[in-house]
Amino acid sequence: MVEGRLPAGFPSPADDFAMKRLDLNDLLITHPLATFYWQVSGKSMVEAGIDDGDILVVNRALRPAHRSIVVAQVDGGFTVKYLHKRADRVKLVPANPTYPEIVLKEGQELVICGVVTSAIKRFVGHEK
User: Residues 20, 41, 44, 128: which is the catalytic one?
Assistant: First the structure.
């Protein structure tokens, strides 16, 4: 990994950096035994910066809170959404206005699989 931060404004002199090996697991994972990667399919979370094809880092050890981005299982199907918890009402909210909220009805089963902690993007080599 290059030491320091990369300015997105004006370039800095090239001799201001040093190389160091980077392990994304060390950088992105705080609970290795409770963390997994999941590739996104769909566009329901684009306004949260999560795009189709991104790879999510999902941590099962974290306690999901109101407004956490979570991977959830609803009636056997998986989705990634904002968790909305108020009083005794729970719903899953997309970050794209063209997608509906998932409002749980009586009898529906919701399992929170984990909290999304990071999204990994690829800009080259995964075009469709």
Answer: 44
The correct answer on CATH 3.40.50.1000 for the domain covering 31-120 is: no
Closest CA to 59 of 106, 98, 8, 114: 114
For the question of whether the overall pTM of this predicted structure is more than 0.90, the answer is no
| Separation of alpha carbons 3 and 16, rounded Å | 9
pLDDT tens digits, 40-83? 999 999 999 999 999 999 999 999 999 999 999 999 899 999 99
| Residue count (the chain) | 128
Token duo for residue 73 = 């299982």
Kindly give, in sequence order, each residue whose CB lies less than 8 Å from that of residue 15, ignoring residues fewer than 6 positions away.
none
Q: Which amino acid is at 17?
A: F
- Domain positions in the chain are 31-120
12, 41, 81, 118: which is the annotated catalytic residue?
Answer: 81
Q: Percent of the chain at pLDDT above 70? A: 81
Residue whose entry in the numeric block shows the structure tokens 């004006």:
10
Question: Annotated catalytic, 12?
Answer: no
